[in-house]
């Protein structure tokens, strides 16, 4: 088995996670979440989204969150923010952003339903943004959503994903994160998709962003590692849930990812026990138990140890 | 990717699942669970355990459950029962058993703590049982527990697993099921363990029995499929939890396994929607939600469809 020696994790909790939370999270809690994630060793933390507060009230404090986070930025940590358009980019830049992220769907129906334009149109709209970013020396990461399945049209063609990924790189993105937005991918469909993408895009520019809706995220990460992918997105505590099926799981939990990578002997820089502390803390702030199996198992073992010290 | 074309699933819910449930499950419910699992297409259902009711009160109705199940046995379905000793085997035989299962640990400490004897002694104790089974024309399946880690001694040597597996086959078991009892395996440690076992045992005699305590079970199944393993144990609804960490996950949920195998294009004979119905039913009988991500996602989607029929 030839697998990457180290993996870069891009933490999605503060943005992709909290964005889907119904309960409005206080700004202090958001900033504290980023601080605690840094403390656990994460080196890339997507911090907020510069989307209109009319559409996503949860992210209405984006400028304040980013300014406060950047005012005490940790050395060597990136704080990308999502910028859906030029206006958002300009606001992010004003708040001090040095890295942003843009997104395109690999499904025409998803693009139409979500942003009311075709995939091609949506990518063209990003061109002035990526040009402005380049001029300002701001790094741009690209997301492709619905890379194996779409809630409206079902299966998505791997060639379409490859095309959108290649376009995002051509526009100046340094990396494309391939999102299984509704979590329907399995190791076979993810591998087929990656094969198509890797015909157009170097594997070093590819990240996997897999949702755990059907419990397949770690298996999909493992299949991707076998193909050389070495960057993965995840959200502490599995924050966010699935916006397409209430009650189902969403983002892969960062602690589940780290647990597997630790086991595979890959360096991540993240300290699992500290990360589980963050998962327990933010879950408590949101009034629930952590969604991840690793957090639940580690916390259960700690509770056991606390009651039976002699056995350990 | 060369993977097996079909997979045999051995359902653990009625035995390994319910055995760990604190709430005493009525005999009628147990029999009904087996019936419903047959209805979903399962062809091997471990039905009960002929262990002393003093140790496992939950299985105190073993003879009645097995007799009633066998009185209306479905064609082509196997109903193995766990028989920890000759006395249990004789009771199982009296109730009509045509297949039984025995177990050995790959960890000396686990063997000592659980059955108060060495691994070698425990296997020798099974010899009269396997001889009696052969004489009676009863098939015997073997389990090895703690195949990657032990709650008392940590990591377990792959060679030890291979040795116990080979001994069980030599004693007449038709198959050995390799159990990651505390769910600490990952695709790398599971692969190393399988490599060692497959030096002594043909892959066609090997089954994987992976617990989902740290969310790795499907990834471990995927790694095992890549090595040619084509038999897996699982429990509907993830029944049973983890006896070594209260609140953590235990058995891999059968619906999570089937969902992945369906996605990989492998035949299982199991109908996913019907299986999710069984998971929902037995979880409701036990007074909780199904533990599996697939059951939760499928049920969430059904609920969504019921409220927004036009969108589908």
TrEMBL record, chains A, B:
Q: Which molecular function GO terms apply here? A: hydroxymethylglutaryl-CoA lyase activity; metal ion binding
InterPro entries, per database record: Aldolase_TIM, HMGL, PYR_CT
Q: Which residues cross the membrane?
A: none
Which Gene Ontology terms describe the biological processes this protein takes part in? ketone body biosynthetic process; L-leucine catabolic process
Keyword set for this entry?
A: Lyase, Metal-binding
Record-stated family: Belongs to the HMG-CoA lyase family.
NCBIfam families referenced in this protein's UniProt entry, alphabetically: PRK05692.1 (NF004283)
Q: What is this protein called?
A: hydroxymethylglutaryl-CoA lyase
